[in-house]
Write a structure and sequence with these properties.
The complex is a heterodimer of chains A (202) and B (440). By secondary structure, chain A is of the alpha+beta class. Chain A is built from 8 helices and 4 strands, in the order ααααβααβββαα. A 4-stranded parallel β-sheet of chain B has the order 3-2-1-4, sandwiched between helices. In chain B, strands 8-7-10-9 form a 4-stranded mixed β-sheet, with no helix packed on it. A two-stranded antiparallel sheet of chain B has the order 5-6. Classes of the chains: A alpha+beta (202), B alpha/beta (440).
């Protein structure tokens, strides 16, 4: 996991399939950032260069766009990123107390990563899990309601690998991929080409 | 009043496997699409118009009218907004995770009605499981012939792309969303042009609709627009999905008939919210997302009706209700919501970027016991600079509605609970400490 590691050949292949789904290449920028994060857990400088080539912009534009979005990390993070929601509904259920408990339990402050690179702690905005306040995400998988005890169990389960099925390593957004490119568009283009060829012959 | 009504968008949710194709097909899935394809696009359009389906995203603009505004062009795009991020709103999240096929079916119907050849569902990035389920459902729809070329033998063709967001509240604004979908920062676009229906994605006419709006379409096509308007009252037709959270016994999502059901029903009825937690007294509630001015006990008997709530000085907005009991601190609540706006402001417009940050700092110092009496007037003045006149609906000094949303929790609290704000100043701290959390 180094700064000079870009997209693997497998990811480059998947990247081309993603780009093909959009009318303009640039639209694939964010999906490709997710793809790059699934390899390295964050956006390495080399993968941002790869993305720039794929979508046809400069690496600085990739970085400038990515830095706007909370889910895209420009620095390494732990294998598991805790996002504790502290917005209004969770705050009313004691989210700040859970957050300070999490700091104490992990021995880090919000925004930091544990020395063994296992856990990163973040304070999140509303995650749309308010019926299960206090709501916590680990690598964008939902857990709640979370109190001190539940947080302890979550840390223990993650450390022991008991949640490996539910929670993939940080950066892996989707384990299901699109199976087709754009069949309707392909059929339309084939038809147009046929009509064009027919027109030329007559 | 709690009424008997058909469950329009939550009909499958009693099943654990509600998100699977098998369950969808066993419960009438894609019947609405079949029927729509047997009609002309104009007929489908007309049914939705008759239904007077209000957009379920937050602005409440009639879906049919939005569709009718599109500029005639060779290429029309349909974009479904599933970037649900308004604080305390979690109904689209649930629909995406629990019934993705229903959203896709509604999307195909809408695309047919507006003549779109390409559609995108913009799924909030943080909904990883929901995103996976939408991808799976999309693959299955293609495989079953409900997407792609010549859908179900009708001659209509459509490609659908499930697009992930990456964490930015501002992308819920439709022009911010389109910028994000074009691979850029989610900066809302300067108006005019006012409507993406005229100039949208890549400059082409684009219809942007919400996830819940799409989820209503299969039922409307199958049962007719008139059956939809038979539910609810006036312009608030049909049922609507509400997200209830905060200090209630039974937080959760509830589909209820619009207008006839009141806030009191939703919060207190045993089949719904079940009352304020621990039998405590109600202090205030937010009627339609964090951007909405607060309501108080005297507003409980207002119906869940877009016009009635608007007339009372707030909005039904994104359909999320947050209950605050008597132990809640109005300063802390306003501070947290303001902190959200400050973090999520895209930074383009000065009143929003600077106003949110300064308001957060002033609220924080009041909460921490370092406030001054004149801070209350300072906050009101600051809010007046963001939305001059402090009326409702707010005047706009910014490109998008995020800015004018900032004053709502601040002015609501200061107007109603001035004495509690002053108590913070006098006592040098918060007189209402938060609940202690259970320590492991």
């Amino acid at each position: 996991m180094t700064e000079d590691a870009g997209l693997s050949s497998l990811s480059l292949e998947r990247a081309e399939a993603i780009v093909a789904c959009y009318p303009e290449r640039r639209s694939a920028l964010i999906p490709l950032c997710h793809l790059a994060q699934s390899e390295h857990g964050y956006l390495t400088a080399a993968s941002m260069e790869d993305i720039a080539k794929l979508v046809g912009c400069s690496p600085a534009e990739v970085r400038g766009t990515a830095s706007f979005y909370d889910m895209l990390h420009l620095e390494p993070v732990g294998r598991y990123v805790f996002a504790v929601c502290t917005n209004i509904a969770c705050m009313l259920a004691g989210a700040y107390e859970v957050l300070s408990y999490a700091e104490q339990r992990l021995g880090i402050r919000v925004g930091q990563t544990t020395q063994d690179e296992m856990f990163t702690l973040e304070e999140a905005e509303c995650l749309a899990g308010c019926d299960k306040a206090v709501c916590v995400q680990v690598n964008h998988r939902f857990f709640g309601p979370i109190d001190g005890d539940a947080f302890d169990r979550l840390v223990d389960d993650l450390a022991a690998g008991r949640l490996a099925e539910t929670v993939p390593p940080h950066g892996v957004l989707n384990r299901v991929s699109r199976a087709v490119v754009l069949p309707a568009k392909a059929a339309r283009e084939a038809k147009a080409a046929e009509a064009g060829a027919g027109g030329g012959a007559s | 009043m709690i009424t008997e009504h058909p469950r329009i968008v939550t009909s499958r949710l009693e099943y654990d496997d509600s998100y699977t194709l098998a369950r969808f097909l066993a419960t009438g899935g894609y019947d609405g699409l079949r029927k729509a394809l047997s009609m002309t696009p104009e007929q489908v359009f007309e049914e939705v118009n008759v239904a007077s389906l209000l957009g379920r995203g937050g602005a409440g603009f009639p879906a049919g009218r939005k569709w009718s505004m599109r500029r005639p062009a060779d290429t029309t795009y349909l974009v479904i907004n599933g970037d649900e991020s308004e604080p305390a709103t979690f109904k689209d999240h649930m629909l995406i995770e629990r019934d993705p096929h229903q959203i896709i079916e509604g999307t195909i119907i809408a695309a047919y009605a507006v003549g779109a050849a390409a559609a995108f569902i913009f799924c909030r990035g943080e909904f990883a499981l929901g995103y996976e389920r939408l991808l799976q459902a999309c693959n299955e729809a293609y495989e079953g012939g409900a997407l792609g070329a010549d859908i179900l033998g009708s001659g209509f063709s459509l490609d659908l792309v499930i697009h992930p967001g990456a964490g930015a509240y501002i992308c819920g604004d439709e022009t911010g969303l389109l910028e994000s979908l074009e691979g850029k920062r989610g900066f809302p676009r300067i108006k005019p042009p006012y409507f993406p229906a005229v100039i949208g994605l890549y400059g082409e006419p684009t219809i942007v609709n919400n996830v819940e709006t799409m989820s209503n379409l299969p039922w409307i096509v199958l049962n007719g627009g008139a059956a939809f308007t038979a539910l609810g009252q006036g312009s608030s037709a049909g049922t609507r999905l509400f997200a209830l959270s905060g200090h209630v016994e039974r937080p959760g999502w509830y589909e209820v008939e619009m207008s006839k059901t009141t806030f009191r029903d939703l919060i207190y009825d045993r089949s719904l919210g079940g009352g304020v937690r621990g039998g405590r007294a109600l202090k205030a509630f937010i009627p339609g997302g964090a951007s909405a001015p607060w309501f108080f006990p005297e507003h409980l008997d207002i119906g869940l009706d877009q016009d009635a709530v608007g007339k009372a000085g707030s909005m039904l907005g994104s359909g999320s209700i947050v209950v605050m009991d008597e132990t809640s601190c109005p300063v802390r609540a306003a501070w947290r919501i303001t902190r959200f706006f400050a973090r999520e402001s895209c930074g383009q417009c000065t009143p929003c970027r600077e106003g949110s940050g300064w308001a957060e700092k002033i609220l924080r110092r009041i909460e921490d016991g370092f406030g001054r009496e004149e801070d209350l007037d300072l906050l009101m003045d600051l809010c007046d600079n963001i939305a001059p006149g402090l009326g409702w609906p707010p005047k706009q000094t910014t490109i998008c509605p995020l800015g004018p949303s900032i004053p709502s929790p601040i002015t609501s609290g200061i107007t109603r609970f001035r004495d509690e704000y002053l108590l913070h100043v006098k006592e040098g701290g918060c007189p209402m400490p938060p609940d202690e959390v259970q320590r492991g």
